[in-house]
Amino acid sequence: MPAATTERRPRLGGAVVVKLGGSLIQSPHLSAWLTQLATARGRAILVAGGGPFADAVRIAQHQLPFADQAAHLMAILAMEQFALMLAALQPGLRPAASRAALQAACRQGVTPVWLPSRMTTGAPDIPESWQVTSDSLAVWLARKLGVGRVLLVKSAALPAGGASAAALAEAGIVDPLLPRFLAGSAIECRCIEAPGAEDFAAALAAGRLAGTLLAGND
Questions:
Q1: Is residue 3 part of a domain?
Q2: Counting CB atoms within 10 angstroms of each CB, which of 2, 98, 146, 175 has the fewest?
């Protein structure tokens, strides 16, 4: 007797961590990204940048100097605020604060948006510095979850073909510590420009990842 047909559940290891930078908050392409991510049916995990919420932390630290340790924790909470806003804009996204919650959402065919404070607070491998942004944290999360692909969505123009993480860090396109977080990993990390939501979706449907490949991870 043939087995009953069931819908294939996405495997977490086959998913992609997608980071949407906070600068996209004013982008006309934000809506397209949220739509495509919501319809990824558990094949994507969304990491939000800090956006204006992180900018408010920078302004406050400039006006009333306080330790970078506190600023780092506040910037992590800024990522959570942007994540909650994105989930409110697109009901197809589910906020998730733990590994178990992220895994459960993907198994259920729902795209989780990461709330990072629970997993990152006190983590010894995350420097408490402004040099660590959602770029590096997206890679950190991928390594923790055993996910082999990361896509960083950027407002800045990207070079054609491949580029090194170090070169993009030097150009200010990715954060300064991203090369360190990628070092020694087998993660396929790419950057894509903000207008590329449909390219992302088409590549994901074909089992590939769109965007500029960051070379030199070893």
A1: no
A2: 2
Query: What is the tally of structural domains in the chain?
Result: 1
Q: Is residue 172 classed as helix, strand or coil in its secondary structure?
A: coil
CB-CB neighbours of 93 under 10 Å: 24
Q: Check: CB of residue 105 under 8 Å from CB of residue 44.
A: no
Look up residue 92 and give its DSSP letter. T
Contact 200, 34 (CB under 8 A): no
How far apart, in whole angstroms, are the C-alpha atoms of residue 118 and residue 205? 31
User: Dihedral, CA atoms, 216, 154, 76, 126, nearest 10 degrees?
Assistant: 0
Q: What is the pLDDT of residues 35-46, one digit of tens each?
A: 999 999 889 999
Rounded CA separation 137/117 (Å): 11
- What pTM was estimated for this model as a whole? 0.91
**Alpha carbon of residue 34 to chain centroid:** 13
> Is residue 31 assigned to a domain?
yes
Residue 191: pLDDT over 80: yes
* Domain span at 154: 12-215
Pair of tokens at residue 102: 């992220």
What's the farthest any 2 CA atoms get from each other in the chain? Answer: 72
